[in-house]
Amino acid sequence: MDNLEEQQQELEILQSIYPDELEVLSSTRFQINILLDTESTRKHAVLLDVTYPETYPETVPILNVLEGYIGGDNDDDDESSEDDDSEDEDEANYDDDDGQTMSKKLLNLIETIKLDRDDYDILLRKIREEAEDNVGMPSVFSLASSLKDHAETQFMNKFKESEKIILDAREAREREEQKKFTGTKVTTESFAKWRDSFRKELGIDKRLDERYAGVHKGRLTGKQIFEQGLASGEELEDTTDAKEFDMSELKNRISGISI
Description:
Layout: H1 3-17, E1 22-24, E2 29-35, E3 45-51, E4 62-67, H2 73-91, H3 99-108, H4 117-133, H5 140-179, H6 188-202, H7 204-216, E5 220-221, H8 222-227, E6 244-245, H9 247-255
Antiparallel strand pairs: 1-2, 2-3, 3-4, 5-6
Organism: Pichia kluyveri (Yeast)
Region (Disordered): 68-100
Protein name: Gir2 protein
């Protein structure tokens, strides 16, 4: 069987498998519209465009992957409107949304997912690689089946990526909200630092020193000298009646003591 006969035979088989999905454009070119099975109520499809070179199946067919179609012209208008909604969702800044809005977006997220040109390019590379592995035998049915599986997987990957973006944004917002009810953790070091800064800001130590100097004028009372163990009882006889002890004299005595 020559290449042309193999091509005609494969095309007839494909027409029987895809009676409504396959459209013959010429004797060597046709398209298969492949509906995807997704969890969304909105339908999705990819279009496999195939052109037979003269040497097919001994060489790789000329392939392309395009956006598929659903129903009639009215559906095209609906899809155009939905495309705009999808773009709005993609451009949304989830960080600015409140929790209720984010939850609503999660519920409707599956309905906003749609394959784009980058996705079609990824799918095309995958089926071209498979076509190269199947050189020497008719492979369009196998390629169409693989394309359906890859497209459904690509669709779910996009959904999970978008879902993660929303969930991460919601968790970040919740963490920020939680900070309002969680005070800064206090440690010994942080308290000491705050205490020193607070006393310095209010000038507490300075005012205490000034107040002490004003009251005692640099002198200690006999009671204070006794409590601090700076003199014997005899030396305090003249100070028990609250008389003051000269600090300079005390310092001279202390400096003369050998340790």
